[in-house]
TrEMBL record:
<dbReference type="GO" id="GO:0003682">
    <property type="term" value="F:chromatin binding"/>
</dbReference>
<keyword id="KW-0805">Transcription regulation</keyword>
<dbReference type="GO" id="GO:0005634">
    <property type="term" value="C:nucleus"/>
</dbReference>
<protein>
    <recommendedName>
        <fullName>Heterochromatin protein 1</fullName>
    </recommendedName>
</protein>
<dbReference type="GO" id="GO:0031507">
    <property type="term" value="P:heterochromatin formation"/>
</dbReference>
<feature type="domain" description="Chromo">
    <location>
        <begin position="104"/>
        <end position="160"/>
    </location>
</feature>
<feature type="region of interest" description="Disordered">
    <location>
        <begin position="68"/>
        <end position="105"/>
    </location>
</feature>
<dbReference type="InterPro" id="IPR051219">
    <property type="entry name" value="Heterochromatin_chromo-domain"/>
</dbReference>
<dbReference type="InterPro" id="IPR023779">
    <property type="entry name" value="Chromodomain_CS"/>
</dbReference>
<dbReference type="Pfam" id="PF01393">
    <property type="entry name" value="Chromo_shadow"/>
</dbReference>
<dbReference type="InterPro" id="IPR017984">
    <property type="entry name" value="Chromo_dom_subgr"/>
</dbReference>
<dbReference type="InterPro" id="IPR016197">
    <property type="entry name" value="Chromo-like_dom_sf"/>
</dbReference>
<dbReference type="InterPro" id="IPR008251">
    <property type="entry name" value="Chromo_shadow_dom"/>
</dbReference>
<dbReference type="InterPro" id="IPR023780">
    <property type="entry name" value="Chromo_domain"/>
</dbReference>
<dbReference type="Pfam" id="PF00385">
    <property type="entry name" value="Chromo"/>
</dbReference>
<keyword id="KW-0539">Nucleus</keyword>
<dbReference type="GO" id="GO:0000792">
    <property type="term" value="C:heterochromatin"/>
</dbReference>
Length: 160
C-alpha cells in the first residue's frame, strides 16, 4: 500500500479552537464550533458524538452555568431563554389592589386550583373585565353564595 493510498483512506482531522454555542436538534446535542486555523465563516454545528474534545465541552458547560446577572453587560433575552428551554412560567400577581380590595363584587367563579398548595378560585367581578385569583378561604367568607353556585353547577345527581 502506498503512502498516497493510506492518506486518502484516512479521514482528515480538524482541531476545535473553542465551543461557541449549543443546541438540541432532533433530540441530539450539537455544538457550534470555531475551528483552529479557520475564520468565523467556517464555524459549524457538529453532533456531540462526533467530537473528541471533552475538556472544551466541560469548559463550555461550566461557563454556561454562571448566571448571566454575574457577567457584566451580559444579560440573556427572553428569546434566548426560551430557545434554551429555561423560561419558567410563574403566576405573578399584578401590582395594585385586586378583587375585593378594589371594592368589587364577585360575579362568578370561573375555575379553581390548588396548584400553590392552597385552594384558590379564579374570580370574575361585576363591572370588570379582569379576573383575579383569590384564596378560597376569603371567597368562602365574603361570597358563600357564589361558592355554592359554582359547586352546584358541577354536581350531578343520580335519580333512582
Amino acid at each position: 500500500m502506498t503512502d498516497e493510498m493510506s492518506t486518502a483512506d484516512e479521514e482528515e482531522e480538524y482541531s476545535v479552537e473553542k465551543i461557541i454555542d449549543k443546541r438540541i436538534r432532533k433530540g441530539k446535542v450539537e455544538y457550534y464550533l470555531k475551528w483552529k486555523g479557520y475564520g468565523d465563516e467556517d464555524n459549524t454545528w457538529e453532533p456531540e458524538e462526533h467530537l473528541d474534545c471533552p475538556e472544551l465541552i466541560a469548559e463550555y458547560e461550566a461557563r454556561k452555568k454562571i448566571p448571566p446577572s454575574s457577567i457584566p453587560n451580559k444579560g440573556v433575552s427572553i428569546k434566548e431563554k426560551k430557545e434554551r428551554g429555561r423560561v419558567k412560567k410563574t403566576l405573578e400577581e399584578p401590582p395594585g389592589p385586586r378583587g375585593y380590595e378594589r371594592g368589587l363584587n364577585a360575579d362568578e367563579i370561573i375555575g379553581a386550583t390548588d396548584a400553590g398548595g392552597e385552594l384558590t378560585y379564579l374570580m370574575k367581578w361585576i363591572g370588570s373585565e379582569e379576573a383575579d385569583m383569590v384564596p378560597a378561604r376569603i371567597v368562602n367568607a365574603r361570597s358563600p353564595h357564589i361558592v355554592i353556585k359554582f359547586y352546584d353547577g358541577r354536581m350531578s345527581w343520580k335519580s333512582s
